[in-house]
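Let us practice reading a record.
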Amino acid sequence: MQPAGQFSCALDALFAAAEAAIAGGATVLVLTDSRVGPGRAPIPALLACSGVHQHLVKTGLRTSRGLVVETGAAREVHHFATLAGYGAQAIHPWLAFESIAGFAGQLPNKPTVYDAQKNYVKAINKGLMKVMSK
């Protein structure tokens, strides 16, 4: 388990990086966990998204800034819905797309990778519409 101080420092560094990017003229911020590995543990996508969103709201920098989350953690409709509810305006589920590319040829009717990924996106969109209609 990580001491609370270290986790807080990682979030503070993320907030400072977001502010610096905005000061440098960025209008879209991309939060990604695609470069994790030994020695580089990710901040959970929902925590990073929510934290950056709330920090930018408090500092008055959130208006007219896009927040994109590129994460391997988003796989199901619920994951997408919670990320959108916590401030993400776009979500790229890189691990889901890589997984689909790996097994697309083994599916019935042998769809192309493009078609299998397109069907995944369509299913997620339908699920999000159902969630948002409630």
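A brief commentary: Strands lie at 28-32, 66-70, 90-92.
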